[in-house]
Fold each of these.
Amino acid sequence: MCIRDRYQRRVHGIQDINRMLSITFKQLSCRSSNIFGRMFSSIKVPLPNLEVYKLDKNMFPTVAETNREELINYYKQMTLQRRIEITCDEIYKMKEVRGFCHLMDGQEGVSVGIEAGITKQDHLITAYRCHGYLIGRGDTPERLIAEMMGRLTGCSKGKGGSMHMTLLKNRFYGGNGIVGAQVPIGTGIAFGIKYDGKPEVCVSLYGDGAANQGQIAEAANMAKLWNLPVIYICENNLYAMGTCVARSSANTKFYTRLDPIPGVKIDGQNIFAVRETMKKAREWCISGKGPMCLEILTYRYHGHSMSDAGLSYRTRAVSYTHLRAHETSLHLVCRLLLEKKKKRMSK
């Protein structure tokens, strides 16, 4: 196939994906208006238990409040991120994408929950499983898919691919391909925030596999010495690159590993637990108390990357058992909406 034909295929592929995503939004809007009807009062959602380190457990709420508009917004955001990841899976298998590709379907509650707990004035930097965070910071599916395909219209002008997506105007710094390397950069961003005296924080994310990197300990040490406004978040999806955390880490309590920085461990499959904990962590940092470490327990549906089937270190039976035992944030939000609708109709 000549270069011109391949170019045409990629353009048509982007147009097909755009049409699919626009149909998804129309379906969601119709369901939202037809099924759920008028506005209803606030809903109180009990939060799962959490574990703390060098913190008062009572500083964290046990109940979260939400409402119809908020729930539908969360549902739309998480559904969009899920559909984008499934689409990326498909176009990768069609050989329309080159290089590496790390998908985060199953972890939507983490990315949407973090954004719900901070502001657009705050800063965010993460590793290479970054698609959901890019969308959460305000970029579009079109630019994300274009970047995957190496197009000039992509968020990094087609030069970064799946692993290096950025949106600097909205304070999203990637998408970083070197394991753990984003943590020192995030610490430097936090230094700049404190230097300028701004009421902002930097969220610096890393995975359970990167938790053993020495540069994370060095960065955290500097952050605590200077009491920088940085929230370190370990996304613990249990298997890192392909090894169970119990086999790779002597201390699996990642929220304690940045001692003397205080930490908290929460359920990442509950979007409200993520949101409320992020709000408290942000308040902690802005008040001048220094950094905080969060361990967010989550689970990815795909393997580590598209070249990893995810079956050599966890069987299908293990994955299915985990999915049956744990309700995802997407399912939680949908259940709350349907329960409220049922109660309203029964009156």
Amino acid sequence: FSFFFFKQKTAYEILSGLVGSEMCIRDRYQRRVHGIHNPRMDIPVSTPEEGIFLAKVAEQAERYEDMLVFLKPVLQKKGELNMDERNLVSVAYKNLSGNKRTAWRALTAIEENPKYDKYHEKTKTYKVKIEEELKKICKEAIAAVDDNLLKNASTAEGKVFYLKMKADYYRYTGEVCSGTELEEVSKKAEESYSSAKTQAESLPPTDPVRIGLILNYSVFKYEIGKNPKGACEMAKAAFDSAINGLQDLEEDKYKDSTAILQLLKDNLTLWSSELNEGEEGEQKPQSLNILHSHLFFPEGRVQFCLLYTSPSPRDLSTSRMPSSA
């Protein structure tokens, strides 16, 4: 069967599949017979450098659970992580959680389709299983930030990165929660995003970590906080602050920042349109003033075009951006 389900999109969607039925069958057998937690991982990690190398190999193989196995000793032995190392941690957790979030959305679409009413109970049971798996991953990611990563961060950029990461995983948990549980995780996400935003004030407005934080924070306000006006205002303020200083950035940060600003612009287009539909006859939000123009930068840099529109909110959920994933 086929169905369409438009929810939140991400910057660079990375979908990983099974590594082969024989491997899966063998692993299930070994877990059942021998009680091995991770039978694939019998490779000792002697030094942080070995762990980092093996995590990079595992990333290339799209073995994200293995990445975390290799990285956990690194987090325990090593102090502050550099930019590449912290992105390895982020990529591992975000790919694992991203697969669960994608699965949950697919199951939600099926569950809500009257065509499959006779399978409702089975689908619901399956969805609950995915929810528990996602919550477990999010809990582990938050614990990694609290227990190791944030404690060892000495720079404002590092602190913003980890506080944003913590808030993101509270947000992902909130996507599959309701009632009191949703209220609790929403409060914690808001606190972490707010703390990250305060720390980010010491970073330049064009810094990709700062812009990436605002991107995800505004998505939280829109989707979890149900505050589209606040989301638009936050996203537009960040956009306006960053856009004029891009030409002064180094090439790597320029690419990252313009990519994130494009996502901010996409969200502003969508959200402003929805606000207009709900407020017929009222003046259009000011955010629309920036959405229908071309911006050109000197020194032969790539044109930043603001005419493309997106059908759904976007964030950095599974992006592999060097300094803001």
Amino acid sequence: MAAGRDYLPLLFDENIESAVATKVRGKKVTVLLAGHGGTGKSTLVNTLLLKKECMTGVSANAVTTDLKKVYIALPLKDGGECTVEIIDTPGCSGNKEDDAKIAEALKGIPSFDLLLVCIDFSANGSRYSVDSHYRPLKFLRKTLGDECMEKKTVIVLTKANKIFDAPDSEPPSCDSGPAPSVKELLKGWKKKFKEELSDRNDVEPLKNIPIFVAGHATFNGSRRLERFSNVDGTSIWYDHLWDGIAEYTDTAITPIMYTCLADARRTTKVPLPVPSRGVARRIAQFVMTSGPEEISGPAHTLIGLGAGTAILGGPVGAALGGGMMAVGGAVLVAGKLLSMLDD
């Protein structure tokens, strides 16, 4: 097994970056956000992409009061861009008239790749209890269907880094004695969540929804990344969430997050999260087998053919040959990365 972070130079090799950029160039991923107002939905998106693109606020009265679409164009290495469409929804109020309008708007969305249900993990009070979130989850299931809840949904407990920020406030589920870690709090929250659902016979698809915690990134007045928050002293929460999104939803957001992190590594000195071995493996596999550009033939053959085409084919051949060589180089690096991760 590769020691420590030895795989990072291969993961961020320029051939891998270029190959990922080529595969996501011109593509669009749609992310639907759901949850009460003030739970940090827009902040979560900014943090995942390491770019301040969505309007944010701190009031429990949602800044986003209607179904709002934001199109985020992300510049890619070697030119071009990909697009992340964010559809931000107001929280389900329980008011029949309001919820009917929200349901109508949601059903009007042609398709989406990922649903992030946000819950403020740092807040106290019955509004943020497990029970208060059963109703909106049931509403989403009724509106969007079982398949969406089973294959496209992730619950994110936001603002986890703030749990211990206020020394006079007791963290959720904290009994007397030493303060629990976020990991312990998450375990307790999940247990309560499962217990809450076990008492109901109409929520089977909701029982297996993955649940993760999230901190957040802060940005300066120029919208540049200023600080990446830790939870329990590390930024590993970002990687757990990233890996979970990839594992449970099989969405194209994973390579797009990779391009954002690769760009941030070049443009900022802010300490950034380190992708796990699992994320690295997914990126390598994405480079080697993905969609209509699926690689066929040995990488060495692609490099050789590319060199020949570039030499003999004139300007067009040079461009085509260069592309073939780049693909071959990326496959070689991805293969080395997978071998290192498997050792």
